[in-house]
Amino acid sequence: MNSIAIVGAGLGGLACARVLQLHGLDVTVFEQEPSPDARPQGGTLDMHADTGQAALRTAGLHEQFRALARPEGQQMRAVDALTAEVVDDEIPEDGDEFRPEIDRGQLRGLLLGSLVPGTVHWGRSVADVTPGARLTFADGGTEDFDLVVGADGAWSRVRRALTGVRPEYSGVTFVEFGLDDADRRHPALAALTGQGTMVAKRGGQALFAQRNSNGHIRCYATFYATEDARNAERENLLERYAGWHPELLGFLADNDSGFTHRPLYVLPVPHAWTHTPSLTLLGDAAHLMPPLGVGANLALLDGTELATALATGTGVRAYEAGMLPRSIETAAACAEGLHHLLSDDHPAGREAAA
């Protein structure tokens, strides 16, 4: 494989580039954002030992990851929506590092720092992809490669060339917001959150609060809504959650960062394609599914497995033969899990937004 292009500088694409470079292969990453700091990178991720952490070991970055990870973030707390009483509290044992938390931005920074300088071409938006592995950029320029890897997320341009399948609205919407310097400025809410994730559910709605680093708590109001509904306003949310305990409503009333409307989109299950030697997909471009704690892990595993297959000569076909059945099985489970996320019958568990 002489020349490889990765479209998208997310976790999966960067992990793939890292392992390719460890094996001495030529790779270029094209990212439409103008710089690594162009936007916030999202909340906290739980890295599973058998997927995300395994990928980081393959990338030679596991020890650096451990230095940044928060094992205490594995705590999962369920709170009664009407009383704010803790009804379940899963606290990790000392030494438990099966799925420690790390901020997405920290993990992305770790991967970026591991690459040869200049690997990522910032501000290079891909407008079109042809099956012959030609990239056409937004500025009209073109480049040809032996392989183009679509690591470009939910609305992937590479997937459009390979399968033409577009994501569908799941019926569930998240509204994201946050609390800064929570232990000092919002001590009661920080105490209720604990060291990991807190969830309260009632009547097909949920409220999540998650510890991030540097005293930040990232929150998600989650509920069924029509695709075109706009719910990211404080008054609307307080009305929607009327009757919940005042302490829980404090997350909505006292947030510091505004509200961001995030309808959840998913790819149909199964999503697969006819093998095309010059194009392939990884991460959300291949298997966009509800954010139930597995997406980032699978993206990292996809990226390192693809790079290893290319480096060892087994190739794209072997990578897809392993990745596609795994992603189809996981996506089916996540589709069911999305409804558990909002069910009062599942008060706790690992359905935290990731």
TrEMBL record:
It is found in: Cytoplasm. It catalyses: a tetracycline + NADPH + O2 + H(+) = an 11a-hydroxytetracycline + NADP(+) + H2O. Belongs to the aromatic-ring hydroxylase family. TetX subfamily. FAD binds at D46, R104, D284. Residues 144-312 form the FAD-binding domain. An FAD-requiring monooxygenase active on some tetracycline antibiotic derivatives, which leads to their inactivation. Hydroxylates carbon 11a of tetracycline and some analogs. InterPro entries: FAD-bd, FAD/NAD-bd_sf, TetX_monooxygenase. It comes from Amycolatopsis nalaikhensis. Its cofactor is FAD. This is Flavin-dependent monooxygenase. It is an enzyme of class 1 (oxidoreductase). Keywords: Cytoplasm, FAD, Flavoprotein, Monooxygenase, NADP, Nucleotide-binding, Oxidoreductase.
